[in-house]
What does this fold into?
Amino acid sequence: MSKINDEEADRREDDGPDDQAQFSALLEDSAEDLYEHAPCGYLSTQLDGRIAKVNATLLNWLGHHRDDLVGRKHFSDLLTVGGRLYHETHFGPLLRMQGEISGIALELKAADGTRLPVLVTSTVKTGSDGQPLLIRTTIFDARDRRAYETELLRARQEADIERDRLQVLATTLQKTLLPPALANVPGLDVSAYYHIASVDEVGGDFYDLFPLAAGTWGLFLGDVCGKGAAAAAVTSLARYTLRAAAVYDSDPAAVLGNLNTVLNHEYNGTDPRFCTVVYGLLTPDEDRGGFRITVASGGHPPALLMRADGTADFLPTPGGQLIGVLPDVHIATATVHLAPGDTLLLHTDGLTEAHTNAAAGGGERYGDDAFLDFGRDLAPNTASDTIRAVRDLLDTFGSGVDDDTAVLAIHVPRLTSDEQQ
It folds into this structure.
Protein backbone atom coordinates (compact mmCIF):
# COMPACT_ATOMS: atom_id res chain seq x y z
CA MET A 1 0.00 0.00 0.00
CA SER A 2 2.84 2.42 0.85
CA LYS A 3 4.35 1.81 -2.57
CA ILE A 4 1.09 2.83 -4.23
CA ASN A 5 0.82 5.97 -2.07
CA ASP A 6 4.41 6.90 -2.93
CA GLU A 7 3.74 6.49 -6.63
CA GLU A 8 0.60 8.66 -6.34
CA ALA A 9 2.58 11.33 -4.51
CA ASP A 10 5.30 11.25 -7.16
CA ARG A 11 2.69 11.59 -9.89
CA ARG A 12 1.14 14.64 -8.21
CA GLU A 13 4.54 16.22 -7.77
CA ASP A 14 5.11 15.82 -11.49
CA ASP A 15 1.88 17.66 -12.27
CA GLY A 16 2.11 21.35 -12.96
CA PRO A 17 0.70 24.02 -10.60
CA ASP A 18 -2.40 24.49 -12.78
CA ASP A 19 -3.24 20.79 -12.67
CA GLN A 20 -2.86 20.69 -8.90
CA ALA A 21 -5.07 23.76 -8.48
CA GLN A 22 -7.74 22.25 -10.71
CA PHE A 23 -7.63 19.00 -8.77
CA SER A 24 -7.95 20.87 -5.47
CA ALA A 25 -10.91 22.84 -6.82
CA LEU A 26 -12.68 19.63 -7.67
CA LEU A 27 -12.21 18.34 -4.16
CA GLU A 28 -13.62 21.55 -2.75
CA ASP A 29 -17.01 21.06 -4.49
CA SER A 30 -19.68 21.44 -1.86
CA ALA A 31 -22.20 18.72 -1.21
CA GLU A 32 -24.94 21.25 -1.80
CA ASP A 33 -23.59 22.10 -5.26
CA LEU A 34 -23.29 18.42 -6.15
CA TYR A 35 -26.92 17.95 -5.09
CA GLU A 36 -28.25 20.98 -6.95
CA HIS A 37 -26.46 20.34 -10.24
CA ALA A 38 -26.35 16.56 -10.35
CA PRO A 39 -26.91 14.91 -13.73
CA CYS A 40 -30.21 13.58 -12.39
CA GLY A 41 -33.18 15.06 -10.60
CA TYR A 42 -33.48 14.81 -6.81
CA LEU A 43 -36.71 15.22 -4.88
CA SER A 44 -37.56 14.83 -1.22
CA THR A 45 -41.17 14.64 -0.07
CA GLN A 46 -43.06 14.17 3.13
CA LEU A 47 -44.80 10.86 3.63
CA ASP A 48 -47.99 12.24 2.09
CA GLY A 49 -46.06 13.21 -1.04
CA ARG A 50 -45.78 16.97 -0.38
CA ILE A 51 -42.54 18.27 -1.90
CA ALA A 52 -40.01 19.36 0.73
CA LYS A 53 -36.87 19.69 -1.36
CA VAL A 54 -36.01 19.65 -5.07
CA ASN A 55 -32.73 20.20 -6.89
CA ALA A 56 -32.01 22.71 -9.65
CA THR A 57 -31.57 19.99 -12.28
CA LEU A 58 -35.18 18.83 -11.97
CA LEU A 59 -36.45 22.42 -11.80
CA ASN A 60 -34.65 23.22 -15.06
CA TRP A 61 -36.08 20.12 -16.75
CA LEU A 62 -39.63 21.04 -15.74
CA GLY A 63 -39.33 24.82 -16.11
CA HIS A 64 -40.58 25.47 -12.55
CA HIS A 65 -39.36 27.83 -9.84
CA ARG A 66 -38.54 26.32 -6.48
CA ASP A 67 -41.28 28.31 -4.74
CA ASP A 68 -43.83 26.85 -7.19
CA LEU A 69 -43.24 23.36 -5.83
CA VAL A 70 -41.75 23.29 -2.34
CA GLY A 71 -44.51 23.13 0.24
CA ARG A 72 -47.15 23.70 -2.44
CA LYS A 73 -47.23 20.62 -4.66
CA HIS A 74 -47.23 16.88 -4.18
CA PHE A 75 -45.05 14.57 -6.24
CA SER A 76 -48.17 13.15 -7.90
CA ASP A 77 -49.05 16.66 -9.10
CA LEU A 78 -46.02 16.50 -11.39
CA LEU A 79 -47.29 13.35 -13.09
CA THR A 80 -49.60 12.91 -16.06
CA VAL A 81 -53.13 11.62 -15.48
CA GLY A 82 -52.09 8.06 -16.23
CA GLY A 83 -49.00 8.47 -14.06
CA ARG A 84 -51.06 9.69 -11.11
CA LEU A 85 -53.36 6.71 -11.45
CA TYR A 86 -50.40 4.34 -11.52
CA HIS A 87 -48.83 6.16 -8.55
CA GLU A 88 -51.96 5.76 -6.46
CA THR A 89 -52.66 2.12 -7.34
CA HIS A 90 -49.16 0.64 -7.68
CA PHE A 91 -46.21 2.92 -7.02
CA GLY A 92 -47.33 4.32 -3.66
CA PRO A 93 -48.57 1.03 -2.14
CA LEU A 94 -45.43 -0.86 -3.21
CA LEU A 95 -43.21 1.88 -1.81
CA ARG A 96 -44.99 1.75 1.55
CA MET A 97 -44.75 -2.05 1.66
CA GLN A 98 -41.16 -2.48 0.48
CA GLY A 99 -39.54 0.77 1.52
CA GLU A 100 -38.10 1.25 -1.95
CA ILE A 101 -39.00 0.95 -5.61
CA SER A 102 -36.68 1.48 -8.57
CA GLY A 103 -36.58 1.92 -12.32
CA ILE A 104 -40.24 2.81 -12.82
CA ALA A 105 -41.01 4.49 -16.15
CA LEU A 106 -43.28 7.53 -15.74
CA GLU A 107 -43.95 10.84 -17.44
CA LEU A 108 -43.68 14.23 -15.71
CA LYS A 109 -45.55 17.36 -16.81
CA ALA A 110 -43.39 20.39 -17.48
CA ALA A 111 -44.60 23.92 -16.82
CA ASP A 112 -45.26 24.47 -20.52
CA GLY A 113 -47.43 21.34 -20.72
CA THR A 114 -44.87 19.13 -22.44
CA ARG A 115 -44.15 15.65 -21.16
CA LEU A 116 -40.82 14.42 -19.87
CA PRO A 117 -40.29 10.65 -19.87
CA VAL A 118 -38.31 9.64 -16.79
CA LEU A 119 -37.17 6.64 -14.76
CA VAL A 120 -38.03 7.01 -11.06
CA THR A 121 -36.41 5.42 -8.03
CA SER A 122 -37.75 6.16 -4.52
CA THR A 123 -36.64 5.08 -1.06
CA VAL A 124 -38.19 5.72 2.35
CA LYS A 125 -35.78 7.33 4.87
CA THR A 126 -36.36 6.10 8.41
CA GLY A 127 -35.24 7.45 11.78
CA SER A 128 -33.20 5.69 14.45
CA ASP A 129 -36.43 4.17 15.78
CA GLY A 130 -37.23 2.69 12.40
CA GLN A 131 -40.15 4.99 11.75
CA PRO A 132 -40.45 6.50 8.23
CA LEU A 133 -39.51 10.18 8.03
CA LEU A 134 -39.55 11.18 4.36
CA ILE A 135 -39.28 9.86 0.83
CA ARG A 136 -36.21 10.44 -1.31
CA THR A 137 -36.68 10.19 -5.07
CA THR A 138 -34.10 10.10 -7.87
CA ILE A 139 -35.30 10.95 -11.38
CA PHE A 140 -33.39 10.11 -14.58
CA ASP A 141 -34.12 11.79 -17.90
CA ALA A 142 -35.35 9.03 -20.25
CA ARG A 143 -35.92 11.14 -23.35
CA ASP A 144 -33.01 9.60 -25.25
CA ARG A 145 -34.04 6.14 -24.13
CA ARG A 146 -37.66 6.76 -25.13
CA ALA A 147 -36.54 8.05 -28.53
CA TYR A 148 -34.36 4.96 -28.94
CA GLU A 149 -37.22 2.63 -27.98
CA THR A 150 -39.57 4.49 -30.32
CA GLU A 151 -37.09 4.11 -33.16
CA LEU A 152 -36.71 0.41 -32.39
CA LEU A 153 -40.49 0.01 -32.39
CA ARG A 154 -40.80 1.88 -35.69
CA ALA A 155 -38.06 -0.25 -37.23
CA ARG A 156 -39.74 -3.42 -36.00
CA GLN A 157 -43.10 -2.33 -37.39
CA GLU A 158 -41.50 -1.56 -40.74
CA ALA A 159 -39.77 -4.94 -40.69
CA ASP A 160 -43.07 -6.68 -39.91
CA ILE A 161 -44.78 -4.84 -42.78
CA GLU A 162 -41.95 -5.77 -45.14
CA ARG A 163 -42.05 -9.38 -43.96
CA ASP A 164 -45.81 -9.54 -44.54
CA ARG A 165 -45.32 -8.05 -48.01
CA LEU A 166 -42.64 -10.61 -48.84
CA GLN A 167 -44.83 -13.42 -47.54
CA VAL A 168 -47.69 -12.32 -49.80
CA LEU A 169 -45.27 -12.05 -52.71
CA ALA A 170 -43.79 -15.47 -52.00
CA THR A 171 -47.24 -17.06 -51.66
CA THR A 172 -48.44 -15.45 -54.87
CA LEU A 173 -45.32 -16.53 -56.75
CA GLN A 174 -45.64 -20.05 -55.36
CA LYS A 175 -49.18 -20.30 -56.67
CA THR A 176 -48.05 -19.34 -60.18
CA LEU A 177 -45.63 -22.27 -60.15
CA LEU A 178 -48.36 -24.82 -59.46
CA PRO A 179 -51.29 -25.76 -61.69
CA PRO A 180 -54.57 -24.15 -60.59
CA ALA A 181 -56.24 -27.55 -61.12
CA LEU A 182 -55.16 -30.97 -62.25
CA ALA A 183 -56.51 -32.36 -65.51
CA ASN A 184 -59.58 -34.57 -65.24
CA VAL A 185 -58.61 -38.06 -66.43
CA PRO A 186 -61.62 -40.34 -67.10
CA GLY A 187 -61.33 -43.48 -65.01
CA LEU A 188 -58.73 -42.02 -62.71
CA ASP A 189 -58.87 -40.39 -59.24
CA VAL A 190 -56.10 -37.82 -58.76
CA SER A 191 -55.19 -35.61 -55.80
CA ALA A 192 -52.19 -33.44 -54.91
CA TYR A 193 -50.89 -31.36 -52.02
CA TYR A 194 -48.11 -28.84 -51.50
CA HIS A 195 -46.78 -28.33 -47.97
CA ILE A 196 -44.94 -25.03 -47.49
CA ALA A 197 -42.13 -25.29 -44.94
CA SER A 198 -41.53 -21.52 -44.73
CA VAL A 199 -43.86 -18.69 -45.73
CA ASP A 200 -40.86 -16.40 -46.16
CA GLU A 201 -39.30 -18.19 -49.12
CA VAL A 202 -40.52 -19.68 -52.37
CA GLY A 203 -39.83 -23.38 -52.54
CA GLY A 204 -38.63 -25.36 -55.53
CA ASP A 205 -41.11 -28.26 -55.61
CA PHE A 206 -43.51 -28.59 -58.54
CA TYR A 207 -46.02 -30.99 -60.09
CA ASP A 208 -48.56 -31.19 -62.91
CA LEU A 209 -50.93 -33.50 -64.76
CA PHE A 210 -51.97 -32.59 -68.31
CA PRO A 211 -53.46 -34.14 -71.49
CA LEU A 212 -51.29 -35.10 -74.46
CA ALA A 213 -52.38 -36.97 -77.57
CA ALA A 214 -55.80 -38.58 -77.55
CA GLY A 215 -56.03 -41.09 -74.74
CA THR A 216 -52.70 -40.22 -73.05
CA TRP A 217 -51.72 -37.92 -70.22
CA GLY A 218 -48.42 -36.68 -68.90
CA LEU A 219 -47.56 -36.05 -65.27
CA PHE A 220 -44.49 -34.94 -63.40
CA LEU A 221 -43.30 -34.07 -59.93
CA GLY A 222 -39.93 -32.51 -59.15
CA ASP A 223 -37.73 -30.66 -56.71
CA VAL A 224 -35.33 -27.85 -57.62
CA CYS A 225 -32.27 -27.36 -55.43
CA GLY A 226 -32.41 -24.29 -53.21
CA LYS A 227 -35.11 -21.77 -52.37
CA GLY A 228 -36.05 -18.22 -53.19
CA ALA A 229 -36.30 -16.32 -56.45
CA ALA A 230 -33.45 -18.23 -58.13
CA ALA A 231 -35.12 -21.58 -57.40
CA ALA A 232 -38.48 -20.19 -58.58
CA ALA A 233 -36.93 -19.24 -61.92
CA VAL A 234 -35.62 -22.79 -62.38
CA THR A 235 -38.97 -24.22 -61.32
CA SER A 236 -40.81 -22.14 -63.89
CA LEU A 237 -38.36 -23.10 -66.62
CA ALA A 238 -38.60 -26.79 -65.67
CA ARG A 239 -42.41 -26.85 -65.68
CA TYR A 240 -42.81 -25.26 -69.08
CA THR A 241 -39.93 -27.20 -70.60
CA LEU A 242 -41.45 -30.50 -69.44
CA ARG A 243 -44.84 -29.68 -70.92
CA ALA A 244 -43.36 -28.49 -74.20
CA ALA A 245 -41.01 -31.47 -74.48
CA ALA A 246 -43.87 -33.90 -73.76
CA VAL A 247 -45.88 -32.48 -76.67
CA TYR A 248 -42.87 -32.83 -78.98
CA ASP A 249 -41.99 -36.39 -77.85
CA SER A 250 -43.99 -37.97 -75.02
CA ASP A 251 -41.47 -40.73 -74.33
CA PRO A 252 -40.60 -40.20 -70.61
CA ALA A 253 -36.85 -40.65 -71.06
CA ALA A 254 -36.84 -38.21 -73.98
CA VAL A 255 -38.82 -35.64 -71.98
CA LEU A 256 -36.30 -35.67 -69.12
CA GLY A 257 -33.42 -35.68 -71.60
CA ASN A 258 -34.77 -32.46 -73.13
CA LEU A 259 -35.11 -30.86 -69.68
CA ASN A 260 -31.54 -31.86 -68.81
CA THR A 261 -30.24 -30.21 -72.00
CA VAL A 262 -32.08 -26.97 -71.26
CA LEU A 263 -31.01 -26.73 -67.61
CA ASN A 264 -27.42 -27.70 -68.31
CA HIS A 265 -27.22 -25.07 -71.04
CA GLU A 266 -28.82 -22.31 -68.96
CA TYR A 267 -27.12 -23.00 -65.61
CA ASN A 268 -23.63 -24.31 -66.30
CA GLY A 269 -21.73 -21.24 -65.04
CA THR A 270 -20.74 -20.14 -61.56
CA ASP A 271 -24.24 -20.74 -60.20
CA PRO A 272 -25.22 -24.21 -61.42
CA ARG A 273 -28.81 -25.29 -60.87
CA PHE A 274 -30.30 -28.75 -61.01
CA CYS A 275 -33.37 -30.68 -59.95
CA THR A 276 -34.74 -34.15 -59.37
CA VAL A 277 -37.78 -35.08 -61.46
CA VAL A 278 -40.06 -38.01 -62.07
CA TYR A 279 -42.09 -37.91 -65.28
CA GLY A 280 -44.83 -40.38 -66.20
CA LEU A 281 -46.87 -41.21 -69.28
CA LEU A 282 -50.38 -42.49 -68.52
CA THR A 283 -52.28 -44.64 -71.02
CA PRO A 284 -55.57 -46.53 -70.45
CA ASP A 285 -55.09 -50.30 -70.66
CA GLU A 286 -58.00 -51.43 -72.82
CA ASP A 287 -57.22 -55.14 -72.46
CA ARG A 288 -56.62 -55.45 -68.73
CA GLY A 289 -58.47 -52.41 -67.45
CA GLY A 290 -56.91 -49.69 -65.37
CA PHE A 291 -53.91 -47.77 -66.69
CA ARG A 292 -50.42 -48.38 -67.92
CA ILE A 293 -47.84 -45.89 -66.68
CA THR A 294 -44.23 -45.54 -67.76
CA VAL A 295 -42.17 -43.57 -65.27
CA ALA A 296 -38.80 -41.95 -65.91
CA SER A 297 -36.72 -40.69 -62.96
CA GLY A 298 -33.86 -38.26 -62.88
CA GLY A 299 -32.40 -38.73 -59.41
CA HIS A 300 -35.82 -38.54 -57.76
CA PRO A 301 -37.06 -40.62 -54.80
CA PRO A 302 -38.97 -43.69 -56.05
CA ALA A 303 -42.75 -43.57 -56.18
CA LEU A 304 -44.75 -45.63 -53.70
CA LEU A 305 -47.06 -48.20 -55.29
CA MET A 306 -49.97 -49.31 -53.08
CA ARG A 307 -51.87 -52.30 -54.45
CA ALA A 308 -55.53 -53.14 -54.12
CA ASP A 309 -54.63 -56.27 -52.13
CA GLY A 310 -53.15 -54.13 -49.33
CA THR A 311 -49.48 -54.56 -50.24
CA ALA A 312 -47.15 -51.67 -50.94
CA ASP A 313 -43.63 -51.21 -52.27
CA PHE A 314 -41.45 -48.67 -54.02
CA LEU A 315 -41.46 -48.56 -57.80
CA PRO A 316 -37.75 -49.12 -58.54
CA THR A 317 -36.02 -46.58 -60.79
CA PRO A 318 -32.36 -47.05 -59.77
CA GLY A 319 -29.46 -45.17 -61.27
CA GLY A 320 -31.28 -42.08 -62.48
CA GLN A 321 -29.03 -39.03 -62.35
CA LEU A 322 -29.77 -35.44 -61.32
CA ILE A 323 -31.23 -33.32 -64.10
CA GLY A 324 -29.11 -30.39 -65.26
CA VAL A 325 -25.71 -31.39 -63.86
CA LEU A 326 -24.16 -33.29 -66.79
CA PRO A 327 -24.53 -32.71 -70.55
CA ASP A 328 -25.45 -36.38 -70.99
CA VAL A 329 -27.55 -37.90 -68.27
CA HIS A 330 -28.74 -41.42 -67.50
CA ILE A 331 -32.51 -41.66 -67.10
CA ALA A 332 -34.00 -44.62 -65.21
CA THR A 333 -37.39 -45.88 -66.41
CA ALA A 334 -39.98 -48.37 -65.19
CA THR A 335 -43.38 -49.47 -66.51
CA VAL A 336 -46.20 -50.69 -64.29
CA HIS A 337 -49.86 -51.59 -64.65
CA LEU A 338 -52.26 -49.80 -62.30
CA ALA A 339 -55.21 -52.12 -61.72
CA PRO A 340 -58.52 -51.03 -60.16
CA GLY A 341 -57.89 -50.29 -56.49
CA ASP A 342 -54.18 -49.47 -57.00
CA THR A 343 -52.64 -46.12 -56.02
CA LEU A 344 -49.34 -44.59 -57.11
CA LEU A 345 -47.98 -41.92 -54.74
CA LEU A 346 -45.24 -39.56 -55.89
CA HIS A 347 -43.43 -37.35 -53.37
CA THR A 348 -40.46 -35.04 -52.89
CA ASP A 349 -37.79 -35.65 -50.25
CA GLY A 350 -39.14 -32.98 -47.90
CA LEU A 351 -41.36 -35.76 -46.54
CA THR A 352 -38.79 -38.48 -45.92
CA GLU A 353 -36.13 -36.01 -44.68
CA ALA A 354 -38.42 -34.40 -42.10
CA HIS A 355 -37.37 -34.60 -38.45
CA THR A 356 -39.71 -36.76 -36.42
CA ASN A 357 -39.26 -34.85 -33.15
CA ALA A 358 -38.00 -31.32 -33.82
CA ALA A 359 -39.17 -30.09 -30.39
CA ALA A 360 -36.72 -32.44 -28.68
CA GLY A 361 -33.69 -30.94 -30.40
CA GLY A 362 -33.81 -32.27 -33.94
CA GLY A 363 -34.93 -35.87 -33.80
CA GLU A 364 -34.28 -38.51 -36.45
CA ARG A 365 -35.14 -38.28 -40.10
CA TYR A 366 -38.45 -39.92 -41.02
CA GLY A 367 -36.76 -41.97 -43.74
CA ASP A 368 -37.76 -44.27 -46.59
CA ASP A 369 -38.39 -47.31 -44.39
CA ALA A 370 -40.95 -45.47 -42.24
CA PHE A 371 -42.59 -44.10 -45.37
CA LEU A 372 -42.88 -47.60 -46.81
CA ASP A 373 -44.47 -48.84 -43.57
CA PHE A 374 -46.84 -45.87 -43.79
CA GLY A 375 -47.89 -46.99 -47.29
CA ARG A 376 -48.38 -50.58 -46.24
CA ASP A 377 -50.62 -49.50 -43.35
CA LEU A 378 -52.56 -47.19 -45.66
CA ALA A 379 -53.13 -49.51 -48.64
CA PRO A 380 -55.52 -49.82 -50.30
CA ASN A 381 -56.89 -46.29 -50.38
CA THR A 382 -58.24 -43.58 -52.66
CA ALA A 383 -56.15 -40.66 -53.91
CA SER A 384 -57.91 -38.07 -51.78
CA ASP A 385 -57.72 -40.18 -48.61
CA THR A 386 -54.06 -40.91 -49.31
CA ILE A 387 -53.24 -37.22 -49.61
CA ARG A 388 -55.26 -36.50 -46.47
CA ALA A 389 -53.22 -39.11 -44.59
CA VAL A 390 -49.96 -37.55 -45.84
CA ARG A 391 -51.12 -34.11 -44.69
CA ASP A 392 -51.90 -35.50 -41.24
CA LEU A 393 -48.47 -37.14 -41.17
CA LEU A 394 -46.72 -33.87 -42.04
CA ASP A 395 -48.69 -32.09 -39.33
CA THR A 396 -47.34 -34.51 -36.72
CA PHE A 397 -43.80 -33.42 -37.62
CA GLY A 398 -44.59 -29.74 -36.94
CA SER A 399 -41.49 -27.61 -37.41
CA GLY A 400 -39.54 -30.75 -38.24
CA VAL A 401 -40.55 -30.31 -41.88
CA ASP A 402 -37.76 -27.93 -42.93
CA ASP A 403 -38.18 -28.36 -46.68
CA ASP A 404 -41.21 -27.95 -48.92
CA THR A 405 -43.04 -31.16 -49.76
CA ALA A 406 -45.12 -31.98 -52.83
CA VAL A 407 -47.18 -35.16 -53.14
CA LEU A 408 -49.27 -36.44 -56.06
CA ALA A 409 -51.53 -39.48 -55.75
CA ILE A 410 -53.00 -41.40 -58.73
CA HIS A 411 -55.68 -43.96 -57.97
CA VAL A 412 -57.65 -46.28 -60.23
CA PRO A 413 -61.11 -46.65 -58.66
CA ARG A 414 -62.56 -50.09 -58.26
CA LEU A 415 -65.28 -51.02 -60.72
CA THR A 416 -68.87 -50.81 -59.48
CA SER A 417 -71.16 -53.82 -59.84
CA ASP A 418 -72.90 -52.17 -62.81
CA GLU A 419 -69.59 -51.49 -64.54
CA GLN A 420 -68.43 -55.08 -63.96
CA GLN A 421 -71.58 -56.36 -65.67
Remarks:
- Residues 143-176 form the longest helix (34 residues).
- The chain has twelve helices and 15 strands.
- The longest strand covers residues 115-126.
- Residues 312 and 375 are 6 Å apart (CA to CA).
